[in-house]
Amino acid sequence: MRHRYQATVAGRHALAVACSTTGEALAGSPFDIDVGPGPAAAAACRASLAVLDGGEAMPLEPGANPVPTLLAGAEVAVSMAAADAYGNAAAAPGEGSGRGFAVEALGPRQAPLPFARRPGGAGAFTALLTAAGSYVVHARLGDVALAGWPRVLHVAPGASDAARCL
Fold it and tell me: What whole-number distance in Å separates Cα of residue 59 and Cα of residue 77?
């Protein structure tokens, strides 16, 4: 008789194997096994949007304000964490692979969003939004959108600079 077991939780486990008719443990049982995470899955990966103010990240949650308004010159960050299909923390594929994390802000002026990798499959993209208008921010793993994305931001003109007025 054959039995199958599928581990869905990453970590160190003990697998006990016994005879189904007698209950007698198989020699060497329990067996120590190490289960690693599966590949990153877009449906389980998470991304959050925040405005950076003096090094502090202030989250922009979608439920609190569906279309947040920022002032021109605001720096925004999209932080991302990779997870496999079962929710285990996973390593994100490399940016150059075509399957890694990608963020783009489409609006009145292209905002480059360089990626900074963090330990444990996480990373962050940051951009300085200097032109007023609406931006659509996309967060993807490869070409698949993450849950809750894209998001819309509105950027209002900043304070006047007397030195630049005519």
Answer: 9
